[in-house]
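F.,

This is the one I mentioned.
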């Protein structure tokens, strides 16, 4: 029964009483009017009686149906429930409730006639009937509501579990959250003096001790510039809100132009301290793989990152590369065929690294080896043409041909990427049982985690630099001037002609390649483009707009080599005054792409990660599906705002 039918009953009674008084007054003046008013009064009182009887019958039927649904009880025992219970009609109006509902939910007021939805904040009775229950809060108390259907409506049980939920919250808030901390670039301060290193190390440790003291956490020094702090899980939310100021505090420690940085791996949600410590190690490894100077939080297998504004510190020692070269040698010895593959839309760094590794695998290790590449989508066509003109046999193979020639002992070497979803051909990777990864991009969450050898160095300038070092330890007798040119072209591309991310090892690799016959003039010719590509690049640059120090431009063109033009336009926009980062938005057949560049003051990798992409601190990109150019531009602006606000914090 609808609420309006019986909530109007008092008004009918008042109306009937008024008409009766008027009829009494009119009996001596107008007999006709007297009988009319008397009849209306009788009808009004009759309506009141009929509605009341009908509503009482409605209540009895609903309550009787309710009792029938509760085995072993009769209607007279409904009032004896030890927790709030209410019965609603088919339209949601409350027809009956016990005393506990009136006291605990309604504050002593009778709720008959109210809609039950008013006591289910955020829910509707029709959505929770015969369900698993919903959690609500009323006047500071917390309830789990279970609704059971009946013939005439529903029965709602309000189970007060405030104390239980409060206990659970306190349990979660006091769960241990282990943080493992690494002093990223301690080696940089060894080169100054022992006293300088000691002062910096003491300052770093003092900041960490202060961080632990602020939250009454357990602090312990593990040695080898490693530390551990055990926090309460509830305190982590406070740190997230503050964007982990400890990172900025440590960055303020300097000595002889070196800036101290730390990496933090933090685990949340683990029930045992042992599990928390193991996951904190994984998080720390992820933070270091992304270049350091950041906090990586792992919870239920997913990561959250904070910081990452400082550039990765170059590792001076080459011992690790020598160990990796030996591991690759063992993997090659156990294989009968080798494929080398990079990322989609391969560039000079990707193809150059593959060409260098191919000659060593084929000539030094005497293995069948080919470079897997999609010629239609590559951005290194000039390098491919250069090598094919000078080499006796073609070293390139299509992904389909590679799949047909796959064997159980085939080794796949992946260069210039470590992401599963950016490979030239994902099927080839999935079918190869042996995988080696060589990459310099900052580590992302969905990285390849089943590699026999995972050579990942975010401080390296390029994959070609890494491959040059590996080749020098493997066997460089097979390396000729053609391969040296290819490797040098990749280094020059990613360093912008030795301007960005150039360290001691970068110039050592370039000198090594020059010794092997690399010609800088020949390499420079690989960067030349057509007049149409140049016009498109200039057009993109001219249409750029500067937003918070970031140049943003977009083009609607899909014909020609728009991808190459967009990349070169992004590089060119960095030369504009007041521009710290550049972004070019351009479409292809299915997606909207964004190419990002910077000189290091703005971490474009963090910005692109917010949009589902990734890359390096100075060079990154993303691809967006099911979106328009305007929507992509708006998402980019929001990502820039978020990133800059995080950096300021």
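My design for it:
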């Amino acid at each position: 029964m609808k609420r309006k039918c019986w909530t109007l009953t008092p008004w009918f009674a008042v109306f009937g009483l008024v008409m009766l008084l008027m009829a009494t007054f009119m009996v001596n003046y107008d007999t006709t009017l007297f009988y009319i008013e008397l009849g209306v009064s009788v009808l009004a009182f009759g309506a009141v009686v009929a509605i009341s009887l009908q509503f009482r019958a409605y209540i009895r039927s609903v309550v009787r149906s309710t009792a029938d649904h509760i085995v072993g009880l009769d209607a007279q025992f409904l009032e004896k429930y030890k927790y709030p219970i209410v019965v609603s009609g088919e339209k949601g109006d409350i027809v009956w409730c016990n005393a506990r509902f009136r006291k605990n939910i309604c504050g002593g007021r009778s709720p008959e006639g109210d809609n039950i939805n008013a006591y289910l904040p955020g829910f509707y009775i029709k959505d929770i009937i015969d369900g698993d229950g919903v959690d609500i809060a009323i006047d500071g108390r917390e309830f789990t509501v279970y609704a059971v259907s009946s013939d005439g409506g529903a029965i709602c049980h309000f189970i007060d579990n405030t104390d239980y939920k409060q206990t659970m919250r306190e349990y979660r808030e006091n769960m241990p959250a282990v943080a493992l901390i690494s002093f990223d670039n301690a080696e940089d301060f060894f080169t100054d003096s022992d006293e300088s290193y000691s002062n910096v190390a003491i300052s770093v440790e003092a900041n960490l001790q202060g961080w632990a003291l602020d939250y009454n956490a357990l602090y312990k020094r593990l040695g080898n510039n490693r530390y551990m702090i055990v926090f309460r899980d509830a305190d982590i939310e406070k740190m997230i809100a503050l964007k982990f100021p400890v990172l900025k505090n440590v960055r303020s420690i300097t000595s002889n132009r070196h800036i101290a940085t730390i990496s933090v791996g933090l685990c949340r949600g683990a029930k045992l301290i042992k599990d928390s410590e193991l996951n904190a190690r994984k998080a720390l490894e992820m933070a270091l793989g992304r270049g350091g100077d950041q906090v990586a939080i792992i919870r239920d297998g997913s990561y959250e990152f904070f910081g990452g504004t400082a550039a990765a510190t170059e590792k001076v020692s080459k011992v690790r590369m020598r160990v990796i070269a030996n591991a690759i040698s063992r993997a090659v010895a156990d294989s009968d065929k080798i494929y080398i593959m990079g990322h989609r839309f391969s560039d000079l760094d990707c193809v150059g690294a593959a060409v260098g590794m191919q000659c060593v695998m084929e000539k030094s290790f005497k293995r069948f080896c080919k470079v897997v590449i999609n010629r239609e989508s590559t951005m290194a066509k000039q390098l491919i043409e250069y090598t094919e003109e000078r080499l006796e046999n073609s070293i390139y193979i299509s992904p389909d041909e590679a799949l047909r020639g796959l064997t159980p002992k085939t080794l796949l070497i992946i260069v210039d990427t470590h992401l599963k979803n950016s490979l030239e051909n994902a099927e080839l990777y999935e079918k190869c049982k042996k995988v080696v990864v060589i990459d310099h991009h900052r580590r992302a969450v969905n990285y390849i985690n089943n590699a026999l050898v995972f050579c990942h160095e975010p401080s390296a300038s390029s994959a070609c630099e890494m491959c040059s070092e590996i080749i020098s330890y493997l066997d460089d007798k097979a390396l000729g001037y053609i391969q040296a040119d290819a490797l040098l072209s990749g280094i020059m591309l990613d360093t912008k002609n030795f301007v960005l991310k150039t360290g001691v090892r970068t110039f050592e690799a370039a000198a090594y390649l020059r010794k092997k016959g690399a010609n800088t003039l020949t390499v420079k010719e690989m960067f030349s483009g057509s007049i149409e590509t140049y016009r498109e690049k200039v057009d993109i640059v001219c249409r750029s707009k500067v937003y918070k120090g970031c140049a943003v431009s977009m083009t609607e063109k899909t014909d020609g080599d728009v991808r190459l033009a967009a990349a070169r336009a992004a590089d060119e926009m960095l030369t504009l005054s007041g521009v710290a980062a550049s972004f070019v938005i351009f479409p292809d057949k299915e997606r909207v792409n964004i190419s990002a560049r910077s000189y290091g003051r703005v971490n474009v990798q963090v910005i692109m990660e917010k949009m589902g992409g990734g890359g390096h601190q100075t060079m990154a990109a993303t691809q967006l599906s099911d979106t328009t150019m305007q929507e992509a531009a708006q998402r980019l602006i929001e990502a820039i705002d978020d990133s800059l606000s995080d950096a300021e914090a």
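Residues 31-68 form the longest helix (38 residues).

Talk soon.
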